[in-house]
Amino acid sequence: xxxxxxxxxxxxxxxxxxxxxxxxALSPGSFALVMATGIISNACLIEGQRVVSDALFALNxxxxxxxxxxxxxxxxxxxxxxxxxxxxxxxxxxxxTMVAGSxxxxxxxxxxxxxxxxxxxxxxxxxxxxxxxxxxxxxxxxRNRTGGADVIHGGWLIAIVGTEALVILGTIxxxxxxxxxxxxxxLIHMLxxxxxxxxxxxxxxxxxxxxxxxxAPKDLTPVLWIVMGAAxxxxxxxxxxILTASGIAFLNSMRPFIDGVTLIVWAWATWWIPMLLLxxxxxxxxxxxxxxxxxxxxxxxxxxxxxxxxxxxLSLATDFPTLQVVSRAIMWIALAVWLAxxxxxxxxxxxxxxxxxxxxxxxxx
Length: 365
Prior knowledge:
The structure is a single chain. The chain has 14 helices and no strands. By secondary structure, it is an all-alpha fold. It has a single domain, classed as Glycosyltransferase (Alpha/alpha barrel). Helix 2 (32-46) packs antiparallel against helix 3 (50-77) and helix 2 runs parallel beside helix 5 (96-111). The chain is globular, with a radius of gyration of 21 Å.
């Protein structure tokens, strides 16, 4: 194109530069894709939809490996940017998606007979959780300022999701520890309690911010659905503990407490679904905010899939088969939402490729 024509000359696409940009901009919450795909794959398998489940499982293995490589490269090539995310109260809790994603994938591995891989993923997730839990809350206590991280924006509830995900996979891998299996059962009961306590703390802050402060349409992001997802995964973890024999009398004596709390938490998760739908109608219907793809949408897909799995597990724990009808219906809804979000991701990725983002643009930024 001639200069002054108002048009930009076409440029050759630089694949290495494009990849470099994607690594640099990788979100701490990127493993939400793995969480969402994995939980729907597991839900489909539980409901007998093996072909769909296996297809999603294969995609999830690829996504997990790819994001793990991208994260490792970001650690090497962009350590200052990664460090900045780790000490940012608005970003650090996003890293718990790696914990939850590893556990959800591990559960899928176990369902298919890959017990050793499931065990390795649980150990990896536990070590990561131990580092992140104190780093995250240390950052929240020491670096957060007034007007800084916001509970409905910061994804703090993802820390609870990661904690309870360790409980669920822990019940599966505990027998592999042999004589130390009892210690693992004690640990995962402790983690269930920690996740429950954290939810109790955060939900008060969440409700205070949401119901008693000004809320703008931009505040109502898909991440908001984690408030339901955290309750759903706590239900799933509690039901799993009820259904798993630990062989320890003290833990067995906790069953009535876990029974009651699990049912109450499931009811709380259920209560949130119409409210969250109402928020969506208000944002996109009343305020005419266009609905477009954002990576945060995976934070909406996961809670729906988790609610399906939590409901079927609760039906088994309470011997109330009627709930399985609800679980099956929610599974199909979750699958449809996953498909719509995946199409949005494909379209957004194609547009980025078409625009030809280059390495020199990153250096100029």
